[in-house]
Amino acid sequence: MTSYDLVVLGGGIIGLGVARLAARNGISVAVLERSDLASGTSSSSSHMLHGGLRYLEHGRFTLVRESLEQRAAVSRMAPRLVEPRRFLVPLYRGDRIGSLKLRAGLSLYDAFAGKDAFSRHSMVRRAEALALEPALAADGLRGAGIYSDAVMDDARIAIAVARDAAQHGAAIHPHTEPAAVRPAEAGAFELTARDHVTGGTFVLRARAIVNATGAWTDAVRARLFQALKPGTPDPLPLLRPSRGIHLVYPALTRRHGLLLTARRNGRVFFIVPFGGRSLVGTTEIEVPSPAPPAAWRATLDEVRYVREELRRALPGIERLPPLALYAGLRPLLASADDVGSASREHRVIEEHGVITIAGGKYTTFRPIARDVMAHVGARIGRGGRPLADPCEPLPPPLPPGVEVERLAEFAVDHEFARRVSDVVRRRTLLWLEPDRGRAAAARIAQVMAHKLGWSPERQREEFQAYDASLWEEEALLRRSAEA
After folding, report:
1. pLDDT the model gives residue 37
2. In sequence order, what DSSP letters do the residues of 376-420 get, joined into one string?
3. Do 29 and 23 meet the contact criterion of CB atoms below 8 Å apart?
4. What's the confidence (pLDDT) of residue 317?
5. Which helix (H) or strand (E) holds 17?
6. How far is the C-alpha of 176 from the C-alpha of 162, rounded, in Å?
7. Cβ distance 235 to 334 under 8 Å?
């Protein structure tokens, strides 16, 4: 049995951010993630490291200011995984938001960014907007606003945060989850963890547990309640999750991102340049919490919705099929607000000795981690001590142009990859290739078999598992095209 000050459940950006902060401050910590690191919401975002321009309309000024501050900080920490990008906001006749309101919002966004602003906003006329992005629908176009934000590789930043945590002493266990938890003496906990890849188990002792499981927060809370306080009723949900999907296309714009308004329901949606492609989304479908497995699956109606709105925004691409699809759940805090305007703030609570973090957004993972660690410090007797949280560079990924075999080796040796899909989908951009990384996956499986001691059967199964993971997605895209 290995003893730690802290065990973090959940290997998304929030859990890994907590582990990084703990390890950098001399607190022994282990992370248990039942799947791959960043395999949930942290790899299915809009890939924007941003303040949240649309949150200004809902009066979330503190959140926007903090997010813009963190946009600058994370950009400095991961310069090879974050790229400043200009976004164009078209203005059409009859839009809910007119030029004066947009100009005011962009001015406020710049003001909140302060000295960390990438570049100030501007307003352009119709002709200039079409010159910048000729594919825009011209009918009713009056002009556009242009502002700056950042595009990020969400999964690979999370992996870099995990590497930073590990370099400072954290134990990172992907594909591992607690099979049992029980109280131990002196207010501690004993956890039996099961490795889903090897089938083996090991025991950990922890003075504190943090539940940072994102969209699974309520499900994990209920399990922990049952284990630590048998007979206790299931707690009321903290979350009100919503599903968002994105379609991946070849590059649709010249160089700008686009912030658009959906004609069907007035929702904001984006076209985000990323990895030589365009990410188009998103949707907002409320799902129950705890979320059933089907909650992660995109529906035909959602795909049709995104394609329909894209055709209205860029009418010249009607026949262009999407290359890929991904879906994720936002761990929104439960509230009576409409799900589309729900808060992206976070909440930290302690129940039966377990510290749970609910809600939050990717960009603010560092201040969220600080809030969590304030509770951890109080529990383990280190309360009141200031935490060091420097903006030092995170461990960098390999440079572009590296051979697939070297990518696979690096992913296994330094980035905690244990499955072929881990490498293709979350350690590289191979999933954006026209074949979705299938050719590379076969070569990656061969390298991983050598490094991890796989049998020929296991090597074949790993490739087949990645290939099969694409079938449902591609079938849904074909159905949407036929419709």
Report:
1. 98
2. HHHHHT-TTPPPP---PPPPP-PPTT--HHHHHHHHHHHS---SH
3. yes
4. 85
5. helix 13-24
6. 15
7. no
Report how far apart, in Å, the C-alpha atoms of 200 and of each of 194, 416, 454 are: 6, 17, 16
- The answer to whether the CB of 46 falls within 8 A of the CB of 191 is no
The structure tokens listed for 6 are: 């802290």
Contact call for residues 29 and 133 (beta carbons, < 8 A) = no
Q: Alpha-carbon distance 256 to 313, whole Å?
A: 14
Where do we find the tokens 């951890």? 376
| Inter-axis angle of helices 365-380 and 13-24, nearest 10 | 50
What are the structure tokens assigned to 448, written together? 């991983």
Of 119, 483, 82, 433, nearest to 300 by C-alpha is 483
Residues 6+ apart with CB under 8 A from 59: none
Q: Could you read off the pLDDT of 159-199 as tens digits, one per residue?
A: 999 999 999 999 999 999 999 999 999 899 999 999 999 99
8 A C-beta contact, residue 193 and residue 173: yes
Token pair recorded at residue 310: 């894209």
Evaluate whether 458 touches 449 at the Cβ level (below 8 Å).
Answer: yes
79-151+239-340 CATH fold: D-Amino Acid Oxidase; Chain A, domain 2 (3.30.9)
Three-point CA angle 309, 314, 319, nearest 5°: 85
Domain boundaries, given as residue ranges, for the chain = 2-42+155-237+342-380, 79-151+239-340, 404-482
Extract the residue ranges of the chain whose pLDDT is less than 50: none
- Say how many C-beta atoms besides its own lie within 10 A of residue 255's C-beta: 11
Please classify residue 314 by burial: count the beta carbons closer than 10 Å to its beta carbon, then call 0-12 exposed, 13-18 middle and 19+ buried. buried
Q: What is the rounded distance in angstroms from the CA atom of residue 175 to the CA atom of residue 160?
A: 18
H or E element, residue 436 = none
> What string of DSSP letters covers 198-251?
T--EEEEEEEEEEE--GGGHHHHHHHHHHHHSTTPPPPPPSB--EEEEEEEEE-
Is it true that 2-42+155-237+342-380 and 79-151+239-340 share their CATH fold? no
Specify the pTM: 0.96
* Alpha-carbon radius of gyration of the chain: 22
pLDDT at 419: 98
Q: In 3D, which of 255, 300, 258 has the Cα closest to residue 280?
A: 258
Bin 358: left if φ > 0, else alpha if -120 < ψ < 50, else beta: beta
Tell me the C-alpha distance between 250 and 359, whole Å.
Answer: 32
- Give residue for tokens 């949240």: 52
Single-letter amino acid code for the residue at 28: S
Eight-state DSSP code of residue 267: -
Please state, in angstroms and rounded to a whole number, the distance separating the CA atoms of residues 228 and 235.
13
Please give the CATH number for the structural domain made up of 2-42+155-237+342-380.
Answer: 3.50.50.60
